[in-house]
Design goal:
Two copies of one chain form a homodimer.
Chain A (H helix, E strand, L loop, with lengths): L6 E4 L5 H9 L7 H17 L1 H11 L14 H10 L2 H19 L6 E4 L5 E8 L2 E5 L8 H14 L3 E5 L9 H9 L4 E3 L3 H10 L9 E3 L4 H10 L4 E2 L7 E6 L5 H12 L6 E6 L2 H14 L6 H11 L1 E4 L3 H11 L3 E5 L3 H5 L7 E4 L5 H6 L25 E8 L2 H17 L3 H12 L5
Parallel strand pairs in A: 1-11, 4-5, 4-7, 5-6, 7-8, 9-10, 9-12, 10-11, 12-13
Antiparallel strand pairs in A: 2-3, 3-14
Helix pairs in contact in A: 2-3, 2-8, 2-9, 3-8, 4-7, 5-6, 5-7, 6-7, 8-9, 10-11, 10-12, 16-17
Chain lengths: 439, 439
Amino acid sequence: MTMTKINFLNSSEKDFNLKLSQLLKISSQDDNSIEKIVTSILLDIQTIGDKALLQYTNKFDRISIKNASELEIPKSKWKEALDSISREQKKSLEIAAERIQEYHNHQISRTWEYTEKDGTILGQKITPIDKVGLYVPGGKAAYPSSVLMNAIPAKVAGVSELIMVSPTPDGYMNPLVLAAAFMSKVDRIFTIGGAQAVGALAYGTNTIPKVDKIVGPGNAYVAYAKKKVFGTVGIDMVAGPSEILIICDGKTPAEWIAMDLFSQAEHDELAQSILLSPDANFIKQVEESIKKLLPKMPRSDIITKSLYNRGALILVKDLEEACIIANTIAPEHLEISTENPDELLKFINNAGAIFMGKYTSESLGDYCAGPNHVLPTSQTSRFSSPLGVYDFQKRSSLIKISQQGAINLGKVASELALGEGLQAHAASAQYRVNGKISW
Amino acid sequence: MTMTKINFLNSSEKDFNLKLSQLLKISSQDDNSIEKIVTSILLDIQTIGDKALLQYTNKFDRISIKNASELEIPKSKWKEALDSISREQKKSLEIAAERIQEYHNHQISRTWEYTEKDGTILGQKITPIDKVGLYVPGGKAAYPSSVLMNAIPAKVAGVSELIMVSPTPDGYMNPLVLAAAFMSKVDRIFTIGGAQAVGALAYGTNTIPKVDKIVGPGNAYVAYAKKKVFGTVGIDMVAGPSEILIICDGKTPAEWIAMDLFSQAEHDELAQSILLSPDANFIKQVEESIKKLLPKMPRSDIITKSLYNRGALILVKDLEEACIIANTIAPEHLEISTENPDELLKFINNAGAIFMGKYTSESLGDYCAGPNHVLPTSQTSRFSSPLGVYDFQKRSSLIKISQQGAINLGKVASELALGEGLQAHAASAQYRVNGKISW
């Protein structure tokens, strides 16, 4: 049932915390039928490989491919797609790609080491993940920006083989998606989707290379399949509905704030848009702007459902209290739309991305500011981070003990190992102290 | 069935790859009964909190506590434990703690930002995770080194509340564990374990604080409970059996290498110890050393089962081929026990920790070299890293667009948003360009 207006909460009311936690709650999507279907698809891919992949692809995407080799799109077609889009689109994609690249260059971790007095060397070696699979949803919800945001950090990290998969329902592939893949230096593209694509990337088939990690958004089947293959391969995260939290001092035009709330709500009926402001009058203005602008929006149906069922306008005591509430909500996107956002930044601990000042709409960050738009949802910014170059690099500890170091450390390790009842550990250390076992 | 001797493989044989992949395979532990028990324990904790926690704790640990407040061990008891251990043990723990702290200080990430020509500021803010739960197994397998390895990086990261849980079967708590907790600045300790402890940390009860992330090793119940609460809280990793892979040029004493293989095998019957060497004669010496040393080992039963069922001695063409094989195995621990380990390091991509040179036994790294001993197992070093300070920090993107920046970027974002059919995104950007919507 859709409510008839947006929720209004007041942080001074007694039951505020309860109401807030109810607002944030999402009914969990443990769907048994999805689990069953995905489990059986994954098993088929694992056992009969390409044969199952072809069957599922033809069935779910309503196409009829005979040979698995036809599943790959040759690079010449990507280039054609790039040449087919408008000059403005191409230019915009190029600017976005450049800025994303520039930002992510700052995230590269490098190997480090240090030498101790006795010559012992300790450090950490950083290497890129070798092969990565990138899932890109097909059909209408095909987002070229998603290709850039996932592929560019992988390539900045040095991933040697970036395999993109994207289904072509009824044979359709969005040329903007192919153009974005060409621009962001994806290595190969296969027209497969759903749990069957995730399985093919995780286990490998004759046609699809087995990868080390799978990233990218997808529907409930893709999400469950990713969870299921986790361990065999790495995965990025399993994203929930998108969220925006706006802290506003009332100095940003109300219409801008209303539209920022819309921009999250238009994604999905389950998306969540919340405003925190200490200015009751401003909140009223935003509510009026919502009413005025809503009918003009092409996606007003989705926006209405999202905003009225899951959105809220919240009156807070002051901006500092707003920050405390923001840390509890731990939003995916946080706009600090105030005159002096820097003053508030120090109070913010939990947020995927922080958009500061009235000119920084979330939509600028979604496409082209530079930072990644793949962000932790559902309060997970309490413990996780935006997708980044660090998700495509891994670390190995480096330990090179000198002869003197082994004498010093061997005694310590031996003492602790015997305390834990692990005598082979102790003996192995003792051999390095004086060549013999002494327990 | 235990084999009667250790496996021998030769990389030049035709079916080597098949044999190797069979050796690495572990029968998956999807145990339905564990799943059912854990699911019901977690539900009880979620619904009746402390009451369920007390019931399960009393039952599984064979104790009889009446009030949940008795589950907390006051700090005075930790101090008593520290004073009760031997001077050598205390000194060894102190040296280990200091070295672990020193190494992990190198892993701290710091907030960064850069300013563009038009005044736009981009960056990333680094913050510690607020509350972390640390699981420490109880009873016989209580490892103080595990406390140091998990607690110190959390505290280096700046975690404000580090809650340790450890069961006390029959009321027993290892004083070394309490001493290590005191030394590594854990904040609170509760005597709970199993799935009920994981649930209490994930959901919170009246007595146990709800945390943001849970780390630390545990049995199959703990591992499954961690998987199950993932999303509600972060988790570190779900570790498989421990592994060592040794590359040796034949210049390290054979007994040392045999003992290094033992030191992994003594953990667990499923632990895996493998040697790669191009020197057939040396492999024979190692095999003889194994036979000679095995009867002397207090844990010879476990070592024998592990070594004969899951271990292997592998003859390779040369050291470079050994590195290629090592990358496929992607071991948790890799010893490069050669005269010039640096020459081989450049070939190694996948390994949790790399121990270089004959003096660097894995056991030194397990306890006191400095790097973490919590490492990716079961070939997951292809895509994951040792536990580190970075596991207790998280990032938030920082975006502060200037007025001029919003004009430049607004056009790009608007173009791309309209291409994706997201008009509110476009409008939100356009407002920042010239204050009005233009589609």
